[in-house]
Amino acid sequence: MTTQLLSARKGEITREMETAARSENVAVDHIQAGILDGSIVITRNNRRAIDGLAIGAGLRVKVNANFGSSRDDADMENELCKMRVAIAAGADAVMDLSTGGDIGLIRKTALAGCAVPMGTVPIYQCAADLLADGKHLMDMTADEMLAAIERHGRDGVDFITIHCGVTKESVKRLSDEGRLLDIVSRGGAIHAKWIEYHREENPLYARFDELVEIAREYDMTLSLGDGLRPGCLADATDRAQVQETIVLGELAARARKAGAQVMIEGPGHMPMDQIAANMKLQKRLCGGAPFYVLGPLVTDIAPGYDHITSAIGGAIAAMSGADFLCYVTPAEHLRLPTPEDVRQGVIAARIAGHAADIARGLPGARQRDDDMARARKRLDWTAQINLSLDPETARRRREETAPADESVCTMCASLCSIKTGSQPVS
Amino acid sequence: MTTQLLSARKGEITREMETAARSENVAVDHIQAGILDGSIVITRNNRRAIDGLAIGAGLRVKVNANFGSSRDDADMENELCKMRVAIAAGADAVMDLSTGGDIGLIRKTALAGCAVPMGTVPIYQCAADLLADGKHLMDMTADEMLAAIERHGRDGVDFITIHCGVTKESVKRLSDEGRLLDIVSRGGAIHAKWIEYHREENPLYARFDELVEIAREYDMTLSLGDGLRPGCLADATDRAQVQETIVLGELAARARKAGAQVMIEGPGHMPMDQIAANMKLQKRLCGGAPFYVLGPLVTDIAPGYDHITSAIGGAIAAMSGADFLCYVTPAEHLRLPTPEDVRQGVIAARIAGHAADIARGLPGARQRDDDMARARKRLDWTAQINLSLDPETARRRREETAPADESVCTMCASLCSIKTGSQPVS
After folding, report:
1. How many CB atoms lie within 10 A of CB A392?
2. What pLDDT was estimated at residue B16?
3. Least crowded by CB within 10 Å, which of A101, A323, B100, B303?
């Protein structure tokens, strides 16, 4: 068993590199070189029979969708439905964030039916299992944390979020400076509290080398989580956030040196004017590692519409260097999402990613847009519908109000500008 | 009868300037100076008994919502309903773009029930009336165009879009360079075709001084329309678009000199990476006039979701200098919007405007976001709902799935990070 990175280091071109190069329409050398210098990962557990997903420099921006049970809502079928809805809507990867019911069974069943890379957050299972056993979160042991990671790797998980940047040092900086909303990452809150309770260093930091060994065994990509990400605009780009990024940069270098693939996670909630600087900072501090961002949400006051607030932030982030967008659904801050929330979230994130691909000048990214423009000029509605990101929704909206003249729509009717412009003058 | 600009020139502080200063929480001198140098307008027809709306430099970004009949759908009550829905959702201004049914009656009825500034596009009425009479669009006379403007002013319309930058010169540049999608503005297409058919200059350009006189009489703000705005990404920032902006800048200076208030309209469809440069260009070419943008839509392939594509573009535009966002609804490119489309469009545009206010550092803009962060930290759900941009939607989404523990939500349940973080360690 080897990793894409170790193969690249030996000068090998793997089947996964070739598949990625074809799907991205780039030279396989670009993929190999990117894996070698850490600016690209191909996420795929070496026990899984799926195509890997390449994420990083010079590639199409990718979209991840979360699903997963909670203690309040642990219906496995419903969660598997969300996974399928997400993939059907075009998610490039999914994460099973289950924290309720039989978490292991959900994960294994999901993996068996999932043709795209799947990520998890192993600490969630540690925590949920403890609570289910009537124990306290602080009873969690370092060995349990590592065992959960090993179990997820063995099950075939393709990438995991681990909060190893939540250290004594970064947590101290957080409490010294103070925050409006403290820690909003579940994993981050658990590790910070654990450090405080046990007066010991975060085991995922202290025993990082063991963790890297597990990751390397399965070629499970490490997604270094931002446990201290800002949860509101006021906390964005504070010392704790930046301190954590520095630590993550150091750990990324160590993981890479040991042959494990690694990406970095980022904010969170952030005013628009800070986003570009944050992307630049992360890329520099973390040696160009692929950047996986949640949001950023550009205002805190739009619960019910956070797929839109995060599409704005995600688009700017991706234009400024982020490589992988974690979707946010309209349910964020309010409830576990429904399948329809999931669909809305994926579409919004795909819009953001696609707009960024165009802005970044990714070769060929504008092709479908140009085809749409041509279809509009021809007043070819069938082509317009088919070229849409979500053809079904576009078709339904058009059909709900039928125009008298089939060549136009009910908005402009006889005053359609395309029609006016194409009429002969004489 | 005078205008805000002529009053400012005489050193007067009007009641409207005072009201605007209070509502924006800025010094009235700032408003007066902005009107004087053309960087601020207060839009309000001097026959209307409403508060004016100040738009421009150093002020909160404003949102406009369109409503109005088309030939396919000319139910006045339905359009008035959309107007009310838009205002209830927080639109700062509305435009009646009616092109079907009794357009004059719809306008007068709407104005009578509209407490915010209302704009129109007089050429739409000219065109619709001609077609209703069985005539050809090209039969339109210059006198009819000016008469429509006069009629709208007399009725109390607060601002009008006029496409006077569609000139022989700019249209020639458009056809010389060629476009994927030609002209997508209804007014722009009519004027361009009129120029071609009559082999004469656009009357709204040739007789601009008469037009300014009408505007001045009613203090009806001139919104210099971008009839040649790009309708797809491929056409963005082409010579025709920039040529038109140059002409609009010249006309803005003439209007201002004559004492009329003026703002400029902008794109359209545009890749994200071109937006900031376009805002800078417009401000420089048009002497700092308030910029009223439609979109920009940052991809062409998302019909059904263009409130999102335009929220992304609008947020970046406003962060980069745009002052007034015209909403786009999920119905754009597909049909005349429904009242619910209108509501969705207004909320999306308000998110964009608010995010930009924060990014621009508008004093106090983040207050409500900070209050939301505090409410989240307290797990105070009543406050969170009340602080939401759309409390009803937030409340409904939360109530649809009730958490077992009322202090959290069904997403994280017992693993809520705020709850974990606030627990005592011992």
Report:
1. 10
2. 97
3. A101
Greatest pairwise CA separation for chain B in angstroms: 86
- In this complex, do B412 and A70 lie within 8 Å of one another by their Cβ atoms? yes
Share of chain A above pLDDT 70, in %: 100
A99 CB neighbours in chain B (<8 A) are: 412-413, 415
- Please answer whether residues B330 and B341 qualify as being in contact, where contact means their C-beta atoms are separated by less than 8 angstroms: yes
Q: Backbone phi, then psi, for A342, in 5-degree steps?
A: -60, -45
Query: Does residue B363 come out as left (phi exceeding 0), alpha (psi in the -120 to 50 range) or beta?
Result: beta
CB contact under 8 A, A334 and B70: no
CB-nearest to A180 from B137, B197, B373 is: B373
Cα separation, A324 vs A313, in Å, equals 13
| DSSP assignments along A98-147, one per residue | --SS-HHHHHHHHHHT--S-EEE-HHHHHHHHHHHTT--GGG--HHHHHH
Instruction: Name the amino acid, one letter, at A399.
Output: E
Cα distance between residue B162 and residue B157, in whole Å = 13
The Cα–Cα gap between B409 and A334 comes to: 6
User: What count of residues does chain A have?
Assistant: 426
Q: How far apart are CA A237 and CA A250, in angstroms?
A: 19
* Separation in Å, CA of B386 to nearest CA in chain A: 10
Tokens linked to B357: 């206010």
Interface touch B414/A354, C-beta < 8 Å: no
Tell me the three state secondary structure of residue A12: coil
Based on the number of CB atoms within 10 Å of its own CB, is B392 exposed (0-12), middle (13-18) or buried (19 or more)? Answer: exposed
Nearest CA in chain B to A393: B304
A190: nearest CB among B128, B232, B420: B420
- How high is the pLDDT of residue B410? 93
- State how far residue B334 is from chain A, nearest Cα, in angstroms: 5
Output the pTM of the full model.
0.98
CA distance B49 to chain A (A): 31
Distance CA B110, CA B303 (A): 29
For residue B74, the chain A residue with the least C-alpha distance is A410
| DSSP conformation letters of B276-341 | HHHHHHHHHHTTT--EEEE--BS-SS-TT-HHHHHHHHHHHHHHTT--EEE---TTTTTSPPPHHH
Q: A215 CA to chain B: closest CA distance, Å?
A: 26
Question: What is the least distance, in Å, from the CA of A225 to any CA of chain B?
Answer: 15
Percent of all residues in chain A with a pLDDT value above 90, rounded to a whole number: 98
Provide φ and ψ at A239, rounded to 5°: -65, -35
Q: By C-alpha distance, which of A151, A318, A293, A280 is closest to A225?
A: A293
Q: Which residue of A has its CA nearest to B227?
A: A417
Give the H or E element holding residue B124.
helix B122-132
Is the pLDDT at B1 greater than 80, yes or no? no
- Assign 3-state DSSP to chain B and report helix, strand, coil percentages, each to 5: 50, 10, 35
Residues 335-394, chain B, touching A (beta carbon < 8 A): 335-337, 347-348, 351-352, 354-356, 358-361, 366, 368-370, 372-374, 376-377, 384-385, 387-390, 393-394
pLDDT at A270: 98
Rg over CA atoms, chain A: 22
- B70 inside 8 A of chain A by CB: yes
Sketch out chain A's domains with CATH numbers. 60-359 (3.20.20.540), 367-422 (no CATH)
At A384-407, the pLDDT tens digits run 999 999 999 999 999 988 899 999
Q: Is B58 on the interface with A (CB under 8 A)?
A: no
CB contact under 8 A, B232 and A138: no
Residue A68 tokens read as 């997963």
Tokens of B259: 């004492």
The whole-angstrom separation of Cα A60 and Cα A81 is 26
Whether the bond between A203 and the residue before it is cis, its omega within 30 degrees of 0, is: no
Assess A397–B contact: CB distance below 8 Å, yes or no.
yes
